């Protein structure tokens, strides 16, 4: 998504390396009923009793819709060089069909202009899980038509912002949209239908391909199109166990291959089709779909938080479900009831996720081999901790500094080993609505007082800003 990076030394990052932070529309914007915006599936889901912690919603979130100038000024003060944000589909196209609402697009025009005025590169994500409710009422992602509606929406946004935004991401973590939304039901729209989840995964892939083509039809050729995948860094519980290695293969197909197979290589893994044949006959995969999905990519975004450890389990056994994706009686892994998930020992974040930066290195090097020559960006990486202001109002978060230092060290190691990683987007810029966890989990480098909405940079934000300015990583204990 940018010119080739200069070589990193063992101690520094390339001069052109992007130091960014990321957010998503429903998690920060608020203003859910202003300027023509209509409900998305997350508005409906969060207002359904029992679906989110404390009944929390994104109605106000952190009010970024009205405070974006303050937030951009804060980014510039911290030294960020890039900002990845998502567009609210129902703010731009309230029914998911038809012409754009210019008042909705105007917000993103103002945001982009503000970023550029502060020397910050905008990166637009078109879809971060907030499908217009009217499209869900018509069947949602399990319906093929939704992919075509996404392409129309992509074209509208590309026409509006493509002259000033060079970095574009079609979808964020389609795995979550498909399998947490339609299989386990812990994310919106809260459905629990494994066949529907596989249909949704395919139509999300199709939406990416159609959306990429739609963007390129209306934007300057210099602009770059990517997708952000939360690919899993998978490990067997017992590396010498053939059964555990087979379990890794099963989950690799469902976590990774179901998306990167058609997107990067133009085919679904045959082992995936076989393993899910009792759930669906894949008749929704139509002639020509794989060619539509297999669009040229300009870059690939990787989102990483923790490794995934699996083993074989007997069918019908009480299988450990420590997969880090919420609590549900329904599995997000279609056709993998004989796979058990395990937590690594050691330090964990507030989400209960083990801290292991080496998994990020493994993921980067895997995709360096999987897609040689394709530039990579870390489009999400970060951690939730129980951050609280001290008596002076300062927020010290040494755990997050250590987390970022460890993971960025692995990014730098990957670059030194030949990976073309061109940027890093910390998740998240500031504390916000954390989906089904409501406001209980704080991922932000900037602390938000949810009563006053006052923003306070945590010590990790200051540490990260120092890294961005110097192109090198300060020692964790120095902040």
TrEMBL record:
Q: Which InterPro entries match?
A: GH (IPR017853), GH_1_N_CS (IPR033132), Glyco_hydro_1 (IPR001360), Glyco_hydro_1_AS (IPR018120), Glyco_hydro_1_beta-glucosidase (IPR017736)
NCBIfam families, from UniProt? BGL (TIGR03356)
List the catalysed reactions: Hydrolysis of terminal, non-reducing beta-D-glucosyl residues with release of beta-D-glucose
So what EC number does this one have?
Answer: 3.2.1.21
Q: Does the keyword Glycoprotein apply?
A: no
Give the UniProt family note. Belongs to the glycosyl hydrolase 1 family.
Please give the organism.
Answer: Streptomyces thermospinosisporus
Swiss-Prot/TrEMBL keywords: Carbohydrate metabolism, Cellulose degradation, Glycosidase, Hydrolase, Polysaccharide degradation
Q: Which Gene3D superfamilies match?
A: Glycosidases (3.20.20.80)
- Top-rank taxon of the source lineage equals Bacteria
- Annotated spans, Disordered: 315-334
Residue numbers annotated as active site: 380
Q: What is this protein called?
A: Beta-glucosidase
């Amino acid at each position: 998504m940018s010119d080739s990076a200069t070589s990193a030394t063992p101690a520094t990052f390339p001069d052109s390396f992007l130091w960014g932070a990321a957010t998503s529309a429903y998690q920060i914007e608020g203003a859910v009923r202003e300027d023509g915006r209509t409900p998305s599936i997350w508005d409906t889901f969060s207002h359904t009793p029992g679906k989110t912690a404390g009944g929390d919603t994104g109605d106000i979130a952190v009010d970024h819709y009205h405070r974006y100038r303050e937030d951009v000024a804060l980014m510039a003060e911290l030294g960020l060089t890039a900002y990845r944000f998502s567009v609210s589909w129902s703010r731009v196209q309230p029914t998911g069909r038809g012409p754009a609402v210019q008042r909705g697009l105007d917000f993103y025009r103002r945001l982009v202009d503000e970023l550029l005025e502060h020397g910050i590169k905008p990166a637009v994500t078109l879809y971060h899980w907030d499908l217009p409710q009217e499209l869900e009422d018509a069947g949602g992602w399990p319906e093929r038509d939704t992919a075509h509606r996404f392409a129309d929406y992509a074209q509208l946004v590309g026409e509006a912002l493509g002259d000033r935004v060079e970095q574009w991401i079609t979808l964020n973590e389609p795995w979550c949209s498909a399998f947490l939304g339609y299989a386990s039901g812990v994310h919106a729209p809260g459905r629990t239908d494994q066949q529907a989840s596989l249909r949704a995964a395919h139509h999300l892939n199709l939406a990416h391909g159609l959306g990429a083509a739609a963007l390129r039809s209306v934007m300057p050729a210099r602009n770059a199109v990517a997708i952000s995948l939360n690919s899993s860094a998978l490990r067997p519980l017992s590396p010498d166990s053939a059964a555990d290695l087979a379990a890794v293969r099963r989950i690799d197909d469902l976590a990774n291959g179901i998306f990167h197979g058609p997107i990067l290589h133009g085919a679904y893994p045959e082992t995936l089709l076989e393993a899910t044949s009792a759930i669906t006959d894949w008749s929704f995969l139509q002639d020509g779909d794989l060619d539509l999905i297999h669009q040229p990519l300009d870059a690939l975004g990787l989102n990483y938080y923790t490794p995934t450890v699996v083993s074989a389990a007997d069918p019908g056994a009480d299988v450990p479900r420590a997969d880090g994706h919420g609590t549900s009686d329904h599995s997000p892994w279609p056709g993998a009831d004989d796979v058990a998930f395990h937590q690594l020992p050691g330090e964990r974040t507030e989400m209960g996720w083990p801290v292991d930066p080496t998994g990020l290195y493994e993921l980067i090097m895997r995709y360096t081999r999987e897609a040689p020559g394709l530039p990579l960006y870390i489009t999400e990486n970060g951690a939730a901790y129980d951050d609280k202001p001290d008596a002076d109002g300062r927020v010290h978060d040494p755990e997050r500094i250590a987390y970022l230092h460890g993971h960025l060290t692995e990014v730098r190691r990957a670059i030194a080993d030949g990976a073309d990683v061109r940027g890093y987007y910390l998740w998240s810029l500031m504390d916000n609505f954390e989906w089904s966890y409501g406001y209980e989990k704080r991922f932000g480098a900037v602390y938000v007082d949810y009563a006053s909405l006052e923003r306070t940079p945590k010590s990790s934000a200051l540490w990260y800003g120092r890294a961005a300015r110097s192109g090198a990583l300060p020692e964790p204990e120095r902040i």
